Amino acid sequence: MKVGSVVMEKVEDKMPPVTVYLVEAFSYLEKGGNTAGVMLNADNLSREDRLSIAKQVGVSETAFVSQNEKADFAVAFFTPTEEVDFCGHATVATFWLLKHLGIVSEGRYMQETKAGVLAVDVDTTGLVTMEQTRPTWMNVYSADVIAPLFGLSERALSKLALPIQALSTGLPDIIVPVPKGELDKVVMDEKAVVDFSRQEKVIGFHLFELNPEKGGVTAYCRNFAPAVGISEESATGSASGALACYLYKQLGLTSMCFEQGRAMGKTSRLWAELSIKADDIAQVHVSGMAYLRDRILVALL
């Protein structure tokens, strides 16, 4: 049997294969984006089933959607190697797909995740805006520690006089500012990045270079998370929320557009909006579009 790009043989003594949708989240004009797997009606799957499916799908994250008593949906996120608390691009993929299939209409919905119960808004065009948790500020790192992980010089990372800091709006990432022109020169030392990520208990690193007032893009970004099986990804919603909070703290920005995936040939667009009360971040929202790339069948092993 063949559906999409995966070929499976049906074995009578096993459960039939399940359908997984491949959705390009944070696409721009139906190009680019970051592929997420989305499986609906996942209520009866065990954690082991979900991990097996995510490994076979092989994209950075697969979302599993179930019924829930606390929210409209429960959504669990799995990389090919483990479950994570939250995933921004898989959230966009999930709710865009629900709208595309007519399961939901425009409006506000609540999803229960391991990061908490979070709001998701869907508009008539399919644009998905997701709420993230308020920022948790974590360790600050020196340039001489971080630069060798990405083949950059300490001097290059020190040039902007901006801190290298870990923070989380759902998942912890280390935010690394680099001077303009340096982002595409990055060469990750994968083993060192994996070791450092595990030592510091972060998902990965989100590198950015500022691009003021050019084409409406605030910053170009790259995200590396090999510790959870993602060497690099083309759009990272959770880290974009964290970066937005970082740029508010450092530069006072509240409305931003990020471009990611250029180095991978999958240029993506992510929009971030912050609500501020009494000079503090009250709400974090990240928005994006998506499109359906494929539908595949995956065996329950």
Briefly say what this structure is.
With 301 residues, this protein is of the alpha+beta class. The protein contains six helices and 19 strands.
Structural notes for this entry:
- This protein is of the alpha+beta class and 301 residues long.
- It has two domains: 2-131 and 289-298, Diaminopimelate Epimerase, Chain A, domain 1, CATH 3.10.310; 136-287, Diaminopimelate Epimerase, Chain A, domain 1.
- It is built from six helices and 19 strands.
- A hairpin with a 7-residue loop joins strand 17 (255-260) and strand 18.
- It is globular and about 55 Å long.
- The active site is at 61.
- Its EC number is 5.1.-.-.
- GO terms for molecular function: isomerase activity.
Question: Secondary-structure map with pairings?
Answer:
Blueprint: E1 2-3, E2 6-7, E3 18-27, E4 34-39, H1 47-57, E5 61-66, E6 73-78, E7 83-84, H2 88-100, E8 107-113, E9 116-122, E10 128-132, E11 136-141, H3 143-146, H4 154-158, E12 164-168, E13 172-177, H5 190-200, E14 204-214, E15 217-225, E16 230-233, H6 237-251, E17 255-260, E18 268-277, E19 280-298
Parallel strand pairs: 4-5, 6-8, 13-14, 15-17
Antiparallel strand pairs: 1-2, 3-4, 3-19, 5-6, 6-7, 8-9, 9-10, 10-19, 11-12, 12-13, 14-15, 15-16, 17-18, 18-19
